[in-house]
Each structure stands twice: as structure tokens, then as C-alpha cells.
Design goal:
Elements: H1 2-12, E1 26-30, E2 33-36, E3 41-44, H2 57-67, H3 79-89, E4 98-102, H4 105-120, E5 124-128, E6 158-161, H5 175-190, E7 195-200, H6 218-226, E8 230-234, H7 249-253, E9 259-262, E10 273-277, H8 279-288, H9 299-314, H10 317-338, E11 342-347, E12 352-356, H11 367-379, E13 382-383, E14 385-387, E15 393-395, H12 404-422
Parallel strand pairs: 3-13, 5-6, 5-7, 7-8, 8-9
Antiparallel strand pairs: 1-2, 2-3, 4-10, 9-10, 11-12, 14-15
């Protein structure tokens, strides 16, 4: 392992991130399981990339069949991209009916911001102060946690608003958040920059997926529309049935965005991503920008993405996400009654977790404790992570075939780890 880490540093450069204090050397995956180089099996409770399971047979077969037949770019006519876009846009509400396919969610978000500029003639973007939307030059500046040292003068076009936090900041109907958005829009207008778009993950996953009442995002969406801007929903993490109640999280919020971006789970690990928008926005973008992506929408990627949609439908994985999510919330709530260090429990379909605090009265974040829990779980064969403004909330986001037996193993192991760490054995 030390030799592998040193080789990685030498060949890939410094500061390339790895999970866990002791990185895991993964060599094989199947379903919700991963195996390391020593043959040890791990339960994957984090990976939304392998959305329908690691090495999914249907996805692998689709990839191989198409790869041995044809793979080229979209300047040649091919039915694959059209078949996929028809299937994909059928999961959206009108007027979201046209798409661009890319290789990464970062690219999709970058295009979405250019669409906002094309539609409004302005460049001002509003995002939360605890988010992440990718790593192109423009999109990387939306993040406050991964701010690049070289600014390229892009900071002037951005305004960050207070991220929702249902545990500490009461905002049951979203009016507080909408007020912050309105003030940010006014700042952009006053600066002579103007307002183009608000970009958010509808579940605010990086922000710690705070609890939200139905329609919570509506007031902010209305503020955006009044100002003439676009609402961009980044569904890279929250889409494709993960929220359980709906196929897309913005549908759960009761809003129809102008642009929806997607990535990681779209190809189950194959690099395919994209966005869906309205015919009007697409036409304006195509007139304003000469955009072409050599690999975006290639026949192999489209065959893989179609197989993912087939798996989601045929195996009723959206319903499974809703069912397992409810069970997870019950088990985490039981642990919260047992351990004072758990200050809050949150869940939305197949995304769930617990926020750790030093004391419940002051709600002081227990960030170091959360890190210790994540590493202790890794040592016991359970892979998960943490996130949120204070990095003190467990992020549990398994592949969609994750079942009740897997949940039982996860929760029993978490119970054991918390008992040991809090001295309640």
C-alpha cells in the first residue's frame, strides 16, 4: 500500500484526494459490494456512480455489444442518442423536452450557465455557500470549499447565499432562503452585472440534505422568475429515482426548472452526463454558442445509459429507494435515542445520515468525531462518507439495489462503532 500511494503521488501529483485515513485499494465490484487487493469485502454505502450496482450485467452487456459494433461521434447520424433522449425526457414534465449529452456533470453545469447567459444577456450567478457543482474553470468558482487560487476575475459574477440548515436555521416554507436569493439578485443588479441564474441541488446534498417541507423551493424559484433569470437544478446526485418519491428531486420540490443537469449515476460509472432543457432555451443556446462534444452522446454511452434506465424501471429501484429510506430513518432514529452525540437524523429516499454534535443544546458540530466514525466504519468493512457545512453529517448514499439485509449490516455496525466510541458498550 505505501508503494502504491507513493507511485500515485509521483505520477498524478500531490493533493490527489483519497477516502479514509487508510485508503482502500479496490480491485473488484459486484452489486453493492467491493473487494480490495487482499480479498476483503466492503459494503458500499456511498457510491452513487454505480447507481444500479457495480458491474451490473445488463449495463456491461449493453456496453460490450455496442462497443463491438460502432462507436463514433454525433456528427454522424445514429439512432442511439435519439432513442435515449426520448426515454430520458419522458421522465420530465413539460416543457423540458430536449437535451445535450456530455461526459461529465461539470461540463453539463458549465453549459447550463452559458444557457443562462444566452437567455438573459447577463452573467450573474447565485449559489449557496456550502455547495459543489463541478470543476471547470467557471463552475469551480461556485464552490466555497474548493475555491481555486487563481480567480480569472470570475468572482465578481457570483453571489453565495446562506445554505439551508433545517437543524439550526428555521425556514419551514423556504421564505428565508428566497429572501437571501432576492438580496443576492439585487446586489448583482446594483453592481451592473445583472442576474442570469440560480443553481442548486434540489436536495441540497452537499449542504447536508436538510429536511424540507413539500414545495420548499417554490418561493426561491418564483423570485428567480420575477427577476428574469433561469432556475438550474443540478441533479447529479439527487436524480434517477434516488429521492424515492419522484424520479427527479425537483419534482418532489414541486418546481419545474429551466435546466436540469445530470451526471455520475447516468451511466453507472461510464462517463456520460448531460442536461435537459426547453426547446426555447436550447434554440437560443445553439444560436449563441457553437458547441460540440466529441464523446458526448456517443453510441456506447447512449447504450449504457439506456440500460441504466431499463434497470431502474424493471427492478423498481425508485420504489426500493423509498422503502429502504423509510427503514433507514427508523433505524437512525433509534440510534439517536441511544446516543446523545447524534443531534439530528435526515433522510430523503436512498440518501440518509446523522449529524453529530458535541452537545444537543448548543448543537456544536462534532466534525472530528464524524471523521473518526467514517474511518472506524471503513475498518469494519463499511464504506461511507461525511459532508455538510461543518463536515459532521454522515453521507450514506448507496447504490440503488441496496436492500434491507444490507441496511441491517450497516446499522448494526454503526451501532457497534458508536457504542465503542462513546463508551456505551
Amino acid at each position: 500500500m505505501p508503494d502504491l500511494i507513493e507511485r500515485r503521488r509521483r505520477l498524478l501529483g500531490p493533493n490527489v484526494s483519497t477516502f479514509y485515513a487508510e485508503p482502500v485499494h479496490i480491485v473488484r465490484g459486484e452489486g453493492v459490494w467491493l473487494w480490495d487487493a487482499d480479498g476483503r469485502r466492503y459494503l458500499d454505502c456511498y457510491n452513487n456512480v454505480a447507481h444500479v450496482g457495480h458491474a451490473n450485467p445488463r449495463v456491461v452487456e449493453a456496453l460490450c455489444n455496442q462497443a463491438r459494433t460502432l462507436n463514433t461521434h454525433t456528427r454522424y447520424l445514429h439512432e442511439g442518442i435519439l432513442d435515449y433522449v426520448e426515454r430520458l425526457t419522458a421522465t420530465f414534465d413539460d416543457p423540458l423536452s430536449t437535451a445535450i449529452l456530455t461526459c461529465t456533470g461539470s461540463e453539463a453545469n458549465d453549459i447550463a450557465l452559458r444557457m443562462a447567459e444566452a437567455m438573459t444577456g447577463k452573467r450573474g450567478i447565485v449559489a449557496t455557500d456550502a455547495t459543489y457543482h463541478g470543476n471547470t474553470t467557471l463552475v469551480s468558482h461556485l464552490s466555497r470549499s474548493n475555491v481555486p487560487e487563481v480567480g480569472f476575475g470570475l468572482g465578481q459574477y457570483l453571489r453565495h447565499v446562506e445554505a439551508p440548515d433545517s437543524y439550526r436555521i428555521p425556514d419551514p416554507d423556504g421564505q428565508r432562503f428566497a429572501g437571501h436569493v432576492e438580496r443576492a439578485i439585487a446586489e448583482l443588479d446594483a453592481a451592473g452585472i445583472g442576474f442570469a441564474a440560480l443553481i442548486v441541488c434540489p436536495l441540497f446534498l452537499n449542504e447536508g440534505f436538510p429536511a424540507q417541507n413539500p414545495g420548499w423551493l417554490k418561493p426561491a424559484a418564483e423570485a428567480v422568475r420575477r427577476a428574469g433569470g433561469l432556475l438550474i437544478c443540478d441533479e447529479v446526485q439527487s436524480g434517477f429515482g434516488r429521492c424515492g418519491s419522484h424520479f427527479w428531486a425537483h419534482q418532489k420540490q414541486g418546481v419545474t426548472p429551466d435546466v436540469v443537469t445530470m451526471g455520475k449515476p447516468m451511466g453507472n460509472g461510464h462517463p456520460v452526463a448531460g442536461l435537459v432543457t426547453t426547446p426555447e432555451i436550447m434554440a437560443r443556446f445553439r444560436r449563441s454558442f457553437r458547441y460540440f462534444n466529441t464523446f458526448g452522446g456517443n453510441p456506447v454511452s447512449c447504450a449504457v445509459a439506456l440500460a441504466v434506465l431499463d434497470e431502474l424501471q424493471d427492478r423498481a429501484l425508485q420504489a426500493n429507494a423509498a422503502h429502504i429510506g423509510r427503514l433507514a430513518h427508523e433505524r437512525l432514529s433509534e440510534l439517536a435515542r441511544k446516543y446523545e452525540v447524534i443531534g439530528d437524523v435526515r433522510q430523503s429516499g436512498m440518501v440518509f445520515g446523522a449529524e453529530f454534535v458535541l452537545d444537543r443544546t448548543r448543537k456544536t458540530p462534532a466534525s472530528e468525531f464524524a471523521d473518526q466514525v467514517v474511518n472506524a466504519m471503513r475498518q469494519r468493512g463499511i464504506l461511507l462518507s461525511k459532508l455538510g457545512r461543518h463536515k459532521n453529517t454522515l453521507k450514506i448514499r448507496p447504490p440503488m439495489p441496496f436492500g434491507a439485509v444490507h441496511l441491517e449490516l450497516l446499522m448494526d455496525t454503526l451501532d457497534s462503532v458508536l457504542a465503542e466510541m462513546t463508551g456505551q458498550q
